[in-house]
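Working notes for the structural subgroup meeting. M.R. asked for a predicted model of this chain before we commit to crystallization trials. I am recording the input and output together here so anyone reviewing the notebook later can reproduce the run.

Input as submitted:
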Amino acid sequence: MSVSNLFSVATLLGGFGLGQAQDPEAEKKAIAQLKEWGVLVLEIAQNDNRLDVSYITAQTKIGNDQLAPLKDLMRLAQLNLRGQEITDDGVVHIANQKTLVKLHLEKTKITDKALEVVKGLENLEYLNLFGTEIGDAGLAHLEGLKKLKSLYLWMTKVTDAGVAKLQAALPMCKINRGT
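Returned structure, recorded in token form:
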């Protein structure tokens, strides 16, 4: 295989989210830590070993520090942080999760700054921001998420103008404002 073909394969793999850490032992330790806290970690299906991680079952107080193990997960597809004490600083732990397709951030303490990180999750198809401090400035960060199909913005600070601008950038995305 030529060098250019190897580069193309490496680029392709990185494009599918395989560019993050490839350490199976680190992933096993991260999963064990999450489960110790009562976080639900499941494979999506028998024939799909990607991970669905939900913090809503956690048996300990969850804050930004409890998101650190997520950086070692190689197969994260769905993440539910609903109602947790997560702030903008915690979202950095998912910055390299290119395999993530579904993200629940509703009722967390995030602001527009968190969406600067979310904008790098290019495979994201679903994003729930219900009950957060997100405004129009944050929405602008989502304009490059071309795979986004569903966005929930009820009880946020977004305006009609902000929604219209995002809808123009993402015409295939269903934006729900709860109205």
